[in-house]
Amino acid sequence: MPRISYDNPFYFLTAVTHMRLEVFRTERLKSILTAAFDEARSSAGIEIFAYVVMANHYHVITDSSKKPSEVLRYLNGISARRVIDHLKENGHESSLAKLRKEESRKEYKYSLWEHHTNKFFIATEPKLIEKANYIHFNPVEEGLASAPGDYRFSSFRYWANKPLLEDEPLKVDVRDIGWKGIRE
Question: Would you say residue 175 has pLDDT above 70?
Fold first, then answer.
């Protein structure tokens, strides 16, 4: 059971889409992203304690069992493959064109994520709760929901001990945290 401390920090990670394109406007693409995160969690043994998927970025809180760069490599790598494959398979040529980068003559590479991600070190329970609240209120601040519980693609229901959705987009590991103090 992970306990947060200076010796065992958690990380608040943010990844932004290429050119801040609003790739995740639809439920389908948000579902593909959360399924990719679940796949990354399984294949790499990543713990995800909190998350939110926004139109052009996501936030995740994870522990320090892996380096943040390694966690991002799994999350961004698997999700980029799944999203780009979906766009190709469903004929979303205009979306693919926005993500395309010319690699060599007549050969293209697609880039879903910017390579400059935000990483924030979390070493105390109050800071963890502050960052989780930031994540859960992000959709409210962006006008996507009137309350955190109204937004489907976040870990709010887990943190608030609310009933989970029948088809919850992504399981989180908040219940596995070894809290030292009383969680508020």
Answer: yes
